Amino acid sequence: MNNQTVVVLDFGGQYNQLIARRVRECGVYCELLPYNTKLEKLKKLEPIGIILTGGPSSVTEKGAPILSEEVLKLGVPVLGICYGCQLLSYMHGGTVTGGAREYGKRTLKTKGGALFKDVPKESTCWMSHSYFVGKAPEGCIVTASTDTCPTAAYENEKEKYYGVQFHPEVMHTQYGMKVLENFLFGVCKAKGDWTMKNFAERTIAALKEKIGDKKVLCALSGGVDSAVAATLVHKACKNLVCVFVDHGLLRKGEAEEVERVFRDEQGMKLITVDASERFLKKLEGVVEPEAKRKIIGEEFIRVFEEEAKKIGHVDYLVQGTIYPDVIESGLGDSAKIKSHHNVGALPDVIDFEEIVEPLRDLFKDEVRKCGFEIGLPRPIVMRQPFPGPGLAIRIIGDITRDKLSILRDADCIFREEIARAGLDEEIWQYFAVLTGARSVGVMGDERTYDYTLALRGVTSVDGMTADWARIPFDVLETISNRIVNEVGHINRIVYDITSKPPATIEWE
Ligand code: XMP
């Protein structure tokens, strides 16, 4: 049985994935699709509601993205947010006016209406627009306003279309979730049937049926996506073989943890390949970041290919693709800042029949919930993102075993102290970087000339943008003291206070 589905039509706004995630948080399955998705495809999904997102255009502009009239004739309730709100008004004969620039928090005054059930008459909302609905279409009632935006919300109860100029999906809108819930449960009559328990049970059952006793191969990285994907498949079939390539650029204790969890606790067939020697050899003297990434990416594929050859033909290859990857691949290429290494390049070189991607409908937070649901331990499920090229891109300059060992020890102390301070699940990513800089210090009356270590901690939602984490000074102090005392060859520690952009999260 399929879940009830809401379709979010993407008009190019910056919060669009967030809208989809919020709908899912309400327990309603939804898909984010381009605004001009073919009617046939929409019909097939049998949506119980449609949400039109914000976007950078103005509806009165030539070439502005518009919605097919046919979509409005589907007889499905529609909610327009920001640009979507203006578009719905425009398509029904209302007017759209420019000139009321509103950015940030505003006081929202509501006057009843289906979307504002149980929302106080005054609350805070988040605005980000310069155009707004002047006159709402005939048959609509205006249900909210702000000082500068007379039509902050309107609705046509009879024809079931609704518009909100503010952004209910962002946290700063105090009752944003309530507004979305009112639309989903009040207007669309959603049942709230999207739960991770359901998802896991149904996915395992479907995988069981699909795979039967055929042979399956999975490249395990220890990251949460491949871990959850492999475990779902493992629960559905007996013939899964996981290959874990240890490229010698992992953090302290990481390889051991992967073996313990997946082989010992989950009982999976796990092949660990210790390829550190060959990776380090290839990386000898290499300084340039892109060259490092390229070498590691290629070598990884080669090692995996060799292992796969030993296993021979497999029927399925498991990949941990998640929904944002699916969305992004449909939206064209953006500028390449760094060549990311992941196992996406594998299919070309492995002898298999089909790729299985059990997580392709899930957002990252849902992957984590699913991981808990199927019994994976917390440290794996809540593991912070770790780049494929590993510590190689956290050592500035050439990579040696000595530098790796210094960085591993320092990074381990950083992680321990962040966990001790209870910040490990709050900070998106935190790690140490062995900078190429050396400086003069004094230790026990002796002059030292040693490495400068940088600490980086960032908060982020998806890694696309990030802010530096405000780690309390006393925690930083403990970390700094421990590292200089316990790890040799570091005599100076700095904290990176740049956001992304203009910096990136990793240093290389
Ligand atoms: P940047 O440094 O581009 O990183 O701001 C954004 C996020 O991506 C991670 N990252 C990678 N992940 N393969 C990956 O799977 C890679 O090659 C790679 N490079 C960076 C980074 O840790 C951060 O979470």
Helicity, as a percent range: 25-40%
Average pLDDT level: 93
Number of beta-strand segments? 20
What's the Cα radius of gyration? Answer: 26 Å
How many helices?
A: 15
Helix-strand category: alpha/beta
Largest sheet: 9 strands, mixed
**Which ranges are low-confidence, i.e. pLDDT below 50, for 5 or more consecutive residues?**
none
Shape from CA axes? globular
Q: What's the end-to-end separation, in Å?
A: 46 Å
**Residue fraction in strands:** 15-25%
What hetero molecules are bound to the protein chains?
A: xanthosine-5'-monophosphate
Strand order in the sheet with the most strands: 2-1-3-4-11-10-9-6-7
For this entry, give a set of tags.
single chain; 508 residues; alpha/beta; five-stranded parallel sheet; 15 helices; 20 strands; binds xanthosine-5'-monophosphate
